[in-house]
Design brief:
184 residues; mainly alpha
Length: 184
Amino acid sequence: MDVAQHIVASSLQLFYRNGFHASGVELLSREAGVTKKTLYRHYPSKDVLINAALALRHTQFMARMRAFVDAAAADQRPLAYIDFIAGWVQEEGFCGCAFINATAEFAQADSDPHQQAAGHKADIQQYLLALCAGAGAPHPEGVSTQLFLLGEGLIVGAQVQRAQRAALVDGARAAAQVIWSTSQ
C-alpha cells in the first residue's frame, strides 16, 4: 500500500468512527502517521480526502456485499442481502452507514459527499433489482425497493438503538421472508 492509499484508508476509519467534521487535518495526519504537509501533497484539501475515502468505502462495501450475497443460491440472494446487512450491523465497531452519516453531515444535495451517498445507494438498489429479477420475482422493482428500504431501516435502527440490535435483526429477517414469499 502506497502512502496515498494508506492516508485514505486510515482517514476512512477515522471519519467512520468520529465523523467527517469532527476529524480535523491534524488528527487525520496523526492517524495516518504522516505530516500535514505529506497529507496535503497527496490530498490538497480535506474535501478531496473525504471524497477519496467515500470512494474507497463504496468499493470495499460493494465487494464485500457481493461476495456474501453471490455465494447464496440465486433464488435466495434477495434474502441473503438482508442476512448480509444483519451480520454487518452486529459487528464490533459498527458505526452505521458511512454514506448515511455523510448525508447527515453534508445535507446539501449538491455537495460531493451527498452525491456520492446517492450514487452508492442507487448502486445497491440496482444490485437488488438484478438479484430479484435473477431470483424470478414477478415484479422485481417493487420487491427490490421493499428489501432496500428494509435494509436501510435496519442499518439506521441498529445504529440508533444498539441495545435492540438482535430484536431489530430478527424483525428485519421476518419481514424480508414475508416480503419475499408474497412476491412469488
